[in-house]
Amino acid sequence: MGRGVRTMTMISSALISVVSISRLRTTVVSAFTRVSSAPSFSSVGKSLLRLDECSAPESTFPVDPTSTHPEGQGEEAEECWASHALLFSSLNDGVIPNDGARTFLQYSLAKTLLCESITQKEDKLRSSVEFSPCNGPNMEDLNTLESVDELLDRGEKLLTRRDFNDKEEANSWADESMRRLISDAKSDINVRILYIPTAFYALNPQSSSTPGKQRQRARADGKKRRTQLLKLLDDLLPQIEDIVPQFNLIATTLDLDDGSLKQPVGSDDASVFPHDGKSALSTWQPHLIYVEGGNTFWLQHCIEKGGYAALMRDACTGPSGAIYCGKSAGAIIAGSSVATATWKGWDDPSVVPGKQSYDDWLDCPGFGFVGDRSFFPHMSDDWIDLIKEKSDAQTSELSLSCLREEDAFCVVGGKKLCFVVSGPSPIDTT
C-alpha cells in the first residue's frame, strides 16, 4: 500500500476513533482503504489443489456426515486451513535431509516473523497517530514499514501452485528477511517454540515396565527429540557476526494429558514463557507448534479431554498463525479424519477409556488444516493393497495423502496451496 494511503488511514483512524489496523488484512477506515499484501482467507474459495495435483499416492475413505464434531474440529475446521504446515512421517528422513522441506520451513519461519514485525510496527504507528493526530505518524517508522511490506510481498510471489519457483531464490529471500529483522531489532528476537510430545507419552499396556518407568523414559526421549528439532531450527536461523541482536530460540514442552509445561529452555527469565497449557496456545503466541508422533488415539483423546481443539485451531490459522509441524500422529490429526490411524493396527486404542476399539474412531474428525484432505503416514509398497481395499470399500470420498518416510507435505493456507517435497529415500537396514 502506498505511503499516502497508509498515512491518511492512520490519521483518519485517530480522528474518528476507528482503530482497525489488523495483521495484513483488508481494512476500511472512513474513505480510505488499506489493502494488505497478504491474501484474505475469507476471500479465497474452495481448495485450489486436488490431491491428484500433489505428488503423493491418493485414496478415499468415509466420514459419516451425521456424526457430531468436537469443538474446533469437523466441518468448520475443513474451511480453515493452517497458516503454514509441514506434515511428515519422520523428522530424520522426511525433513532434516530434505532440502525442499528445509527450504519451506525456513521460508515459513521468515514469513511468520515478518508478519509479526509488521503488526508490531503498525501498532507503534497507530499509537503515535492516536497520541498526536495533528502531527501524523513518524515518517521514519512509516518508511520502514513500507519496505518490510514490500519484502513480504516479494516472498508471497515465490510460491507456485506446486512448489517454489526457485528454491535458491526462496532461501535467499528467507535469509534477507531474517537479516532485515535483525537489523531493525533493538534486542534479541525470541522465536517461540511449543513442543507437544503427548502422543509419544502414551503408555504401552504390553510393556513389562511400570507406568512410572515408561513415563520417565518417554520424557527423557522426548527431551532428546526436542533438542534435535531445536538444532534444526537453529541451523535455519542466521547468526550474524558483529550485530548484537540475534535470533534466540525459546522452547517449552506441553503435555496435553494434564496441561503441564516442562523443560523451558532459551532464557532464564521466567516471564518470557507461558504460565499454563492454555496460555501456551493462545496469549504466548508461539511461532511454531510441533506435534510429536506416537499413539494417535491417546493424542486425540487428550485434545478432546483438555478442550484444546479450538485453541490449537485458533493458534495455527489466520495470517499470523503459528507454523504447524505434525509428525506421524501429529500429521494424522491435522487432517480431516483420524480414521486412517485405524488402518495399519499400529496404534493401540485400548489406552483410551470408553473408546477402546478401532470402530470407535472411524468417525472422529481431525483439525481439517488442509481442507478435506486426510493423511496416511509411513506409506510403503507394503500398504498399497490395504489402501486399495479401503478405497474400494467406501461409498463417500475424501482426499487422502500417503506420506512415505522421505516425504514432507507443505501447506500455505492463505493461498490454499499444498505440495509434497521429497528427500533421499532412507536406507533399508533390515
Task: Characterize the structure shown.
The radius of gyration is 22 Å and the shape is globular. The protein is built from twelve helices and twelve strands. The relative contact order is 0.20. It has an eight-stranded mixed β-sheet with strand order 6-5-4-7-8-3-11-12. Strands 1-2 form a two-stranded antiparallel sheet. Strands 9-10 form a two-stranded parallel ribbon. The protein has helices spanning 3-16, 75-78, 91-94, 99-131, 139-156, 167-184, 211-236, 277-280, 296-306, 309-316, 329-334, 384-392; strands at 27-29, 32-34, 84-88, 189-196, 247-255, 260-265, 288-291, 323-327, 374-379, 400-404, 407-412, 417-422. With 430 residues, the chain is α/β, with parallel strands linked by helices. Mean pLDDT is 81; it is low at 10-78.
